[in-house]
Automatic annotation (TrEMBL):
It comes from the Bacteria. Residues 392-467 form the AMP-binding enzyme C-terminal domain. InterPro entries: AMP-bd_C, AMP-bd_C_sf, AMP-binding_CS, AMP-dep_synth/lig_dom, ANL_N_sf, ATP-dep_AMP-bd_enzyme. This is Fatty-acyl-CoA synthase. One of its GO terms (molecular function) is acid-thiol ligase activity. Gene3D superfamilies: 3.30.300.30, N-terminal domain of ligase-like. It holds the Pfam family AMP-binding_C. Residues 13-341 form the AMP-dependent synthetase/ligase domain.
Length: 487
């Protein structure tokens, strides 16, 4: 009897056996086959074991996108270790705190600032991201089991005490299987990777590798390079802010070569979806909703989005989604974290009585099982004691024909405690003033939801994966760095 693969390692190994000669990684004109990828991952694993790695040890990964990043991620797993990807935009002191919080003593370091490297060298054993020295292959690698920790994803490190979200081989594999069952991943896919690898491995890299597709790796998001890569590709993974920039600035004929795109991580304006469909009718759009702690929660494939563009889809068959009395979405899944690393208090606080995860998102589920987001609990603006969901105002702002992208944040108000302010990026070549934006929003909203200020900005600040950084926008308004007109 053939054993069914029950870990990410075993699943990819099965793909390697079946498709050893197929392209797996493509970077700067160089192609690595699945055989190459798996062989290099074994070398990485043996180097770690020769250096004293023990089962479950945490190993950091820090650097820009490159094939060696994926090789070492898989090498850590094959050695029985736990990969800890870290945001390469952080300063050295923050990276050191994050890695120390999960007891890492080793870190693979790629292209980073010299100051960051120097800071880490004082505390950690630094490993080169792209090591090419030969390795002795004696004996078998450790057996990796479903319950073996696979990765720790770091969250909240910039705003509070860092938390390490622990996922096992089993939870990661289940997430991958959920994604490949709901979205059209195929073995002939060529997926462009421009989101940072520290963030996109679970939702892009692993599903592509587990279905035998190829990954073309770009160092970062760049409109011209992404558009050119799309002429050779079938798909990519993005966030709505990036889709907005591509549809506004990239040549349509290059994007039109794609078969489908997947997006997640932030609210998708319905107007942006309609524009994508109008201008790129042959490119399917698929939406994923999830969180670091419960990787996928719901899926909205292209046909569903065309019928209901404001939904985030239905829960996966193996996922349970509900809404509590306060309007917060609660989810449970076999793809759920096993907990926060060595933090039982935070783990218990994040879970409901039945062990389901509190998402922090507000929403509703209709009689068809369709899920709709109404906002983030932490983003809710409390103005005069009334809760206002920024997403409702953002949706109205996005309907203005001269608005490319809009965001709404709450700012301090002596009268109301907090009041909503809308900030927008004008579409190139379109006339837009802050007064026009403010009048547009106020004319279409109930009195208590109307923004009391509006401002324009050339580009919204973003996080490392391209999501709008609302905290930064709020600070820019408070510091006077965005000119705001008020009623």
């Amino acid at each position: 009897m053939i054993a069914h693969p029950d870990t990410v390692v075993a699943w990819i190994e099965a793909v390697v056996r079946a498709h050893a000669g197929r392209p797996a990684l493509i970077h700067d004109g160089v192609t690595w086959s699945y055989r190459d990828l798996w062989s290099r991952a074994e070398d990485a694993a043996r180097r770690l074991l020769a250096g004293g790695l023990r089962p479950g040890d945490t190993v950091g990964l820090l650097g820009a996108n490159e094939p060696a990043y994926i090789v070492n991620y898989l090498g850590i797993a094959r050695a029985g270790g736990t990969a800890v990807p870290v945001n390469d935009r952080l300063d050295g002191a923050t990276v050191r705190i994050l890695l120390a919080s999960v007891d890492a003593t080793r870190v693979f370091v790629g292209r980073v600032d010299a100051a960051v490297r120097d800071e880490l060298a004082e505390t950690f054993h630094l490993l080169p991201m792209d090591a090419g020295d030969p390795v002795q292959r004696r004996g078998r690698l450790p057996v990796v089991r479903p319950g073996t920790p696979a990765a720790i994803m770091l969250t909240s490190g910039s705003t509070g005490r860092p938390k390490g979200v622990v996922h096992t081989q089993s939870t990661m594999l289940h997430a991958t299987q959920q994604l490949t069952s709901a979205f059209p991943f195929r073995s002939d896919d060529r997926s462009v990777v421009f989101l940072p690898l520290y963030a996109c491995i679970p939702e892009q890299v692993l599903p592509v590798l587990c279905t035998g597709g190829a990954l073309e790796i770009l160092p970062r998001f760049d409109i011209e390079r992404v558009a050119e890569a799309c002429t050779r590709a079938t798909t990519f993974d993005a966030v709505p802010t990036i889709l907005s920039r591509l549809i506004e600035h990239a040549p349509r004929e290059k994007l039109a070569r794609l078969r489908w795109v997947l997006f997640a991580s932030e609210h998708m304006p319905v107007t942006l979806l309609h524009r994508w469909w109008d201008e790129l009718p042959g490119v399917e759009t698929h939406q994923l909703y999830g969180m670091t702690e419960v990787l996928p929660l719901s899926a909205a494939p292209h046909p569903l989005l065309r019928r209901e563009p404001s939904t985030i889809g239905r829960a996966f068959p193996t996922t349970r989604l509900s809404v509590d009395d306060g309007g917060e979405l609660i989810g449970a899944s076999p793809a759920q974290m096993v907990g926060y690393y060595k933090d039982e208090v935070a783990t218990k606080a994040a879970l409901g009585p039945d062990g389901a995860m509190r998402t922090g998102d507000l929403g509703r589920i209709d009689e068809r099982g369709l899920v709709f987001l109404t906002g983030r609990s932490k983003d809710i603006i409390i103005s005069g004691g009334i809760n206002i969901a920024p997403a409702e105002i953002e949706a109205v702002a996005a309907r203005h024909p001269s608005v490319e992208r809009a965001v709404v944040v709450g700012v301090p108000s002596e009268r109301w405690g907090e009041t909503p302010v809308v900030v927008a990026v004008p579409r190139p070549g379109r006339a837009l003033t802050a007064d026009d934006l403010l009048s547009h929003c106020r004319s279409l909203l109930s009195s208590y939801k109307r923004p009391t200020g509006a401002g324009l900005i050339d580009a919204l600040p973003t996080t490392g994966i391209g999501k709008t950084a609302k905290d930064t926008v709020r600070k820019m308004i408070v510091d006077g760095k965005i000119n705001v007109v008020r009623v």
